[in-house]
Each structure stands twice: as structure tokens, then as C-alpha cells.
Amino acid sequence: MCVMIVCIISLNLHEMTLNKLFSRLKYTQLIRKRNCTIILRDHSGRFGNNLFQFATAYGLSLEHSCRLYINPNIIKLLNRYFEINLPDLLTESELNRTLPIQRIYTHCTYFPQLFQPNTSQHIEIGGFWQVQKHFVKQRDQIREQLRFKETVLHPVKKFLEAAMKNRTSTLVGIHIRRGDFLKIRRKTSSDKFIFDAMGYFRRKYNWTKFIIASDDKTYCRKVFGKTTDTFLTPNSFTAVQDMALLTLCHHVIITVGTFGWWGGYLLHNRNGEVLTDSKADHSPVDVNCEASAFFPPWFKFLKSPK
Questions:
Q1: CA 171 to chain CA mean position, Å
Q2: CA torsion angle for 211, 214, 220, 225 (degrees, to 10)?
Q3: Position 51 pLDDT exceeds 70
Q4: Span 234-287, pLDDT tens digits
Q5: For 82-115, how does the pLDDT look when each residue is reduced to its tens digit (9 = 90+)?
Q6: What CATH number did the domain enclosing 216 receive?
Q7: Please, are residues 110 and 134 in contact by the beta-carbon 8 Å criterion?
């Protein structure tokens, strides 16, 4: 009787193992049949743009079951700050055997039909690719790759522990982008938007603390630093530590640019609110991008759409 039970269990386990093997084989055959590749050779712009490019390449490869090549220098850069773990990337020599390659350059255009069925496509992405729709279904996988390393988080956590003496306070991070935008005369968010956004959270919660991360701390101290509930990140913090701090807050207010966008997207609190500035139609203040392509559906707005 015991022998029979053991045999049955062994057969079931054997069957489960075979099923797994067949599933893997079927998946591998699917990729081979699809014969598609996503390629990211160059990174354009600054840190927030680099994250958009990485997330797009990784997200598209998952969505369409494509092979993925990312320049090792880009992985090396991101690995300084994040727990990147992508062991199955194509090598340069493997990529060189991939032909022909179609290069698509865009700032924030959404391509709903990027891949055609039953065709071999090898797409190299160029430009900023500031389109969350291209990786909207892969949010969890992207957040897993973009987990900040403890070396980045340690000083941030120490600062927050000191700032949050009242453990019952609601912590709201604010990112204010000004420095480089002012130099190139690119539109920035108004003081009114930031004060209105702070007022929104003050009305909603009894005890609120605001921590501002900005590339223009002099301006922020002058305009927003006159109340006891508002602090600035230390001068010793790097830009990456500023972003990490935003992700550890309960809620986030973001202004213009992609840096604050990622502070909201990577927010640890899955129930947290990301309140963003926008034009009247909810498109970004500083660029001509479609609202639904640029902003995830869980980002919120103060303005009512017209």
C-alpha cells in the first residue's frame, strides 16, 4: 500500500516536472517564433529620462516576449543606485547577429501597434520615450528592478527618523524642479500650485509634515520655509537620495520634469496619493505630451479638466 502511494506521488511529481518543462519549452518556442528584440544602446537626457528609457525597453520586452539588449554602461550606471537583476540580457556579439534593426526615435508618442503579428522585428529605441503606456502593465516588475540600494537609503532613513519625531504625522514629499529649467527658459510650476497642493493635504490630515527636495534650495527656503511643518532635504543629499526620500513618504507632490515623476511612480506606499501639476487638460505643464500617455491613471490633479 505504502509502495503504491509512493509510486503515485512520484508519478504526480514527475508529471508536474514534465508540465513545467513543457511550459518552459513552449515559452522558449514562443520567443523564437516571435523573433523580436528590443534594443537600448544610448541614454539621452538626465536621470529621470534614463529611467523612462530603461522602463520602456524592459517593459516592451516583457509585454511582447522579446529578447532584450541594454548597453552594459547603462546597466552599470543604474546598478550604482538600484538592485538591477537582468541575467538574460543579450550580449553585444548576440546583438550583432540581429538584422535588420529599426530605430524609432520619440519624445512622448505612444505607439499602440509597435509590433505587427507574425513578423520579425528588432527595434532600437532612441530619444526620451516618456510614455508610461508602453510599460503600464509591467509596473510591479519595473518597481522590482528599480529598488534603491541600502547604501542610498541608509542616510535617507536616518534623516527621516530625526524629522519624524511625531510618528502620527502624515509625511508628504514635494519635488520642485527649477534650476536647469530656468536657465533654458522652460516653464516651471507656480508657487500657487505648490501652496494649493500643500493646502489639500493640510485639510485632509490633522498632522502633516512636508519635506521638499529641490535643485533650488535658496528659493524653497525663502518661499516655503517659513512654517514649522516644512523642511528641506540636507545639502549633503545627492539627487538620487532626494528621489529615494520621495519614494519613502506617505504622499508626494510633484511639479515639472521627469525626476519628480519617478519619485511618485516608485512611491512605496501603494495607497499614497501623487498630486501633480498640469495644464487645464491634465497634460504636462512643460512639454506637449498627451496626458494619458505621460501620467499614470493613479496620478491626481488639482485642476478640473476643460
A1: 21
A2: 20
A3: yes
A4: 999 999 999 999 999 999 999 999 999 999 999 999 999 999 999 999 999 888
A5: 999 999 999 999 998 877 899 999 999 999 888 8
A6: 3.40.50
A7: yes
Alpha-carbon distance 302 to 279, whole Å? 10
Residue pair 213/173 in contact (Cβ under 8 Å)? The answer is yes
Residue 9: the pLDDT is: 33
For the chain, the domain total comes to 2
Please report how the helices 150-163 and 239-248 are oriented relative to each other, as an axis angle in degrees rounded to 10.
60
Position 166 scores a pLDDT of 67
Same domain, 88 and 155: no
In angstroms, the CA 27 to CA 171 distance is 44
Is residue 67 located within the same domain as residue 194?
no
pLDDT at 1: 42
Question: How far is it, in rounded angstroms, from Cα 255 to Cα 188?
Answer: 7
Rounded to the nearest 5 degrees, what angle is found at the Cα of 161, between the Cα atoms of 155 and 167?
A: 155
What residues form DSSP beta bridges with 79?
A: none
Alpha-carbon distance 263 to 146, whole Å? 11
Contact (CB, 8 A) for 60 and 38: yes
Q: Locate cell 543606485: which residue?
A: 81
Of 127, 145, 163, which marks where a domain is finished? 145
Torsion angle in degrees (nearest 10) through CA of 149, 151, 156, 158: 130
Cell of residue 60, nine digits: 516592451
Shared-domain flag, residues 110 and 87? yes
Neighbours of 70 (CB within 10 A): 22
DSSP letter, residue 26: H
High-pLDDT (> 90) share of the chain, %: 71
What sign has the CA pseudo-torsion 261, 267, 270, 272? negative
- Structure confidence at residue 180 (pLDDT): 75
| Displacement of CA 83 from its chain's centroid (Å) | 14
Whether 270 and 155 map to the same domain: the answer is yes
